[in-house]
Amino acid sequence: MTLRVRFNFSRILLYLLFLVITAIVLFPVAINVFTAFKTPMEVMTSSPLSLPDEWQLSNIVTAFDKGNMSVGFKNTIILVVISVVVNTVLGSMTAYVLHRFDFKLRSAIFALFFAAMVVPFYTTEVSRFQIIKSLDLYDTLGAPLLIYAGTDLLQIFIFLQFIQKISTQLDESAMIDGASYFKIYFRIIFPLLLPASATLAIIKAVDIMNDMYIPYLYMPSKDLHTLSTALMTFVSSRGSDWGQLAAAILIVMLPTIIIYLSMQKVIMSGIAEGAVKG
Description:
Elements: H1 2-36, H2 40-45, H3 58-66, H4 69-100, H5 106-118, H6 125-134, H7 142-149, H8 153-163, H9 168-176, H10 181-192, H11 194-210, H12 213-218, H13 242-277
Helix pairs in contact: 1-13, 3-13, 4-7, 4-8, 4-11, 8-13, 11-13
C-alpha cells in the first residue's frame, strides 16, 4: 500500500513537472500569437494573455510588406537548399573516408574536428570574417553558404554510427567489379545513409532558418536579408510596434513549426536509431 502511494505521488510530481515545462514553453508563444492579432491600443491596455477583442489581420499584412518577407523567404530557401545538400554530402563523405581508410593523419583530423567543436566560436570570429572578406564573399549569399556547408563532429559521429553497420564486403564486391571509390560511395554507401541524412538535413535546415547572427553579420544589405534578419526591420531605438513585431515573428516561426511537426517522426527515429547503433 505504501509503495503504491509513493508511486502515485511520484507520478503526480512528474505530471506537475511536465505541466510547468509545457507552460514555460507555450506561454511566450501564446503571448506572441495573441499580440500579433491585437490593435496597438489593445496591446498597450490589455493583459498579454488576454485574447484579442477582434482578430485583426492588419499586423500580418503590414509585417509581410514592411519586412519584405518575400525576399526573406527567397534568400532563406536558397541558403537552406544549397547548404543542406552540400553539408550532407561533405559530412557523409568525410565519415566514410574516416571509417573505411586507415591513414596517418586520421587521428589528427578527428582531433581538429573535436578542437573546432570545443573552442568558443567568438574567439575565431575575427579570423573567419577576414577569410570571408579576403575571398570577396562579404555581403553576398556565398558567405553564409560557405559557413553553413561545413560539417562538424556531431554530424560525422552520427554518420559513423550508421557506416559501422554497413558491411565492408559490399565495398570489396564493388571494387572487384571495377567500381571506383566515388562510385562505391554514391551508389552503395550514400543510399544506405539516407535515414541519417534525412534527420541531419532537417536539423540543419531548422538551424539555418533560425540563425540570425551569421546572415546579419555577413549580409547587411537589405536585398540579402533572410526571414530571421527581417525581424530587425521592426526594432528601433525609438520604440517598436509590438503588434507588427509579433506578427513578423509569427511569419518567421511558421516554416520551422511546419517542418518540425511534419518531420517529427523522421527526426526522432533517426536520432534514436543512431543512438542504438552506437
